[in-house]
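User: Predict the structure for this protein chain, please.
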Amino acid sequence: MNDMWKKRILILSVVLVISVISIINYRLQNENTLETSADFIAYEEKQLQDMKENLVVGEKVETEEDQSISVEASIQDDQDDYFGESKAAINMDRNKIISMLTEIIENREVDSESKNKATEQKLQIIEYMKHERIIENLLNNKGFEEVLILITDNSVNITVNKDTLNKSDIAKILDIVMRETGRPFEQIIIQTKH
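Assistant: Here is the predicted structure, written as structure tokens:
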């Protein structure tokens, strides 16, 4: 009876880990699709227009030139937040998974096979995180100032803060990712934030 509960907990934990990783991957792919949709672009333009009409500093209404500077600065802040917020969300989800796996590993009532599987999963997530940091640093050194990398069992997703990527950019990214992860190019997904 006790072994059956242990197995159920382990299966539930594995399903939860896979679900969280799938949700993160789904969110990243959907955010890129949403950002390029015509409806979202129209919405952004309307919001920008509303912001331009309502910009006020103290009692003085800003001039047209001041408005464009403020709007551009606001847009830049939003772009900067995307990468920081996405990284924070991924790290928070992964830390929850690592914490859950650690509880399984440290639980005296869990059998050694389950502990070994939990240990393997935990080490794999930590390895993915290490490779993501290395790739991010290497891409930063190649001129890609803001990147978001998410490594899963089946893919490596890279989001770059650039309007467009030319063949040289893609080649640089592929070279670094393939060298650091050992993954074939078919598993590497490169996309722009814009």
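The radius of gyration is 22 Å.
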